[in-house]
Amino acid sequence: MENKKRLYSVIQKFLLTILLSLFFNSVFSAQNQKTFLLGSLQAEPGKTVSGWLEVPSGPDPATRIPVTVINGLKSGQVLAIISGIHPYEYPPILASYRLKKMINPEELSGTLILVHIAHLPSFQKRTIYYNPYDWKNLNRVFPGDLKGTQSQRIAAIITEEVINRADAVIDMHCGDGNEALIPYTYWMTCGDEKIDEKSRQMALAFGIRHIIIDSTRPKDPKDSRYLSWTAILRGKPSITTEYGHLGRVDEEMIQANVQGVLNVMKFFKMLSGKANFLSEPVWIDKYEVIYSKHDGLFYPIVKMGYYVQADQIVGYIEDYFGHLIEEVRAPFTGIILYIINTPPCNAGEPLFEVGHVKEK
Questions:
Q1: What tens digit of pLDDT does each residue of 264-315 get?
Q2: Which residues lie closer than 8 Å to 84 by C-beta, 6 or more apart?
Q3: How many CB atoms lie within 10 A of CB 160?
Q4: How far apart (Å, rounded) are the C-alpha atoms in residues 226 and 140?
Q5: Which residues pair with 296 in a beta bridge?
Q6: Domain architecture of the chain: domains with CATH
Q7: What is the pLDDT of residues 319-338, one digit of tens each?
Q8: 3-class DSSP state for residue 222?
């Protein structure tokens, strides 16, 4: 009997030690991770909080941006996922809402910021490229200006509240409502080896086979223009992804965006599990967007993903009476990354993009 009492006592002490260890480890981890502030939102460790980033009025109306902050119990990286810069690009937007429901903050290390629809006015009006109030392309006005037009103010709020708070950024896009586009990622290089390498690893982890090497972005931080480039010029590794096209919401397109983000999170040790990296990416070492010189109707004669020869006819433009204006040709031999697949074309707007595949 005495031996049994001793055994029970030892077991009780052992179990108590385990429970206390688990409790203090949980408390210690929570203490390591601080409450994350984003605008007026406060996400305590182990909590998910959604709300608005307010964009003040200016020469045109105020607006707001729907966001979610998932703050893990453990400390770690702050990763910002931004979708809806061009809000007719639906798969990344739907992916961001799915990620909100999937990520358990109690199993997360670090903080995930989800900007669900960066450009709500355009989403509501179903416009491609442009803000319906100031007719600007949001992804050409970064880092923004709080005293400027609505697009510039949206960019300024995203820069200040999201990019500046993050350790790394993924700007998720796809082919707009008029664009037939093969999946690809922009890997933008700035000359800083650490940032360039981290961005490269993010691109490989996201998992899209075609990766554009882009060293052409403007160097002036006050005129960075593009969201991802704004992050990079602020020392934050970043990529721009493109998966989906023509305003479609196919499940495969949504899932590709979800899985890409989850794998980058594993790369940053925000989630458990081993990150997978592309083993045989196709590197695009040069690209060129061909813009229309005319208003009229565009008729493509090749498809996205087709290889074309230099000077090959890619499509032609007719005027509003059906008269041929121009045969539009490829600037060099390469792959069609995207091509306009709806009839309207306007002078100064894109028709297609050609990429040159880097030799191994």
A1: 999 999 999 999 999 999 999 999 999 999 999 999 999 999 999 999 999 9
A2: 92, 93, 96, 115, 116, 117, 118, 119, 120, 123
A3: 15
A4: 5
A5: 345
A6: 36-267 (3.40.630.10), 288-357 (2.40.50.100)
A7: 999 999 999 999 999 999 99
A8: helix
